[in-house]
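Practice problem: predict the structure.
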Amino acid sequence: MTVPGRGTPAPDVTAVIAAHDESANIVECIASVSWAREVIVVENDSTDDTVALARGAGARVLSPPFTTIGAARNNAIDKAGSSWILVVDADERCTPELAAEIEIVTGQGRGGVSAYRLKRRNFFLGREIRHGGWSGDDDHPIRLFRREHRYNASMVHEHVETSGATGQLSGALLHYTYTSLDQYFEKFDRYSRWWADQHYHKGRRGTAAAVFFKPPARFFRMYFLKSGWRDGAHGLILACLAAASVMAKYARLWERSLRARTSKVG
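Answer:
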């Protein structure tokens, strides 16, 4: 089975790629989904040459005002011309095996299934991580779905809102996450702020107890229960970073709660 080649009708799929300052990734990402009928890059405030590179690689580029990643993807979905949407991040690559499988399910349909989960093979600092909750058995988000579906409004952990049956494909996305710790800490800072803001506005309040207990619980689950230790030093560092990320999220939520109480007293 091969990826659809030149001279054959392209699958009825629009690939949607969200990007911000992704000049190092965007060309290879677009190339991995070039078999699709249409490729849309929805970028937000890029300061590098992401836009020029994406257009040069044959993608249509949108630059709507940024609110959330889900909203950016929804903007691209609204303008898609295909019946099916494949969502790919700029640091991900669609394998030929996955592309061939997508061609089959979108061409034939499978029992009314309108959304599919895709496994991700995750790489951290150049090494594939197979445990700690990072394997394809644990990490399989919905990324292929009919264009009627949309993402929710969450700032973090956004997801596609679907109804009915959901399928699972056997092919995988290659996810080259965090090629440096600088990348990790930049996202660490941004996402912990967004997470705290999101949960505070939903009425959740932070406590010092959560800051104390939740980080070691995350480390224990990831390193021991999910066998992160089997990934060697990479698994250890990831479990430590995950615990630190949890601490930052709950500490920021506690800080927001403290400020609210202080302002009421004042």
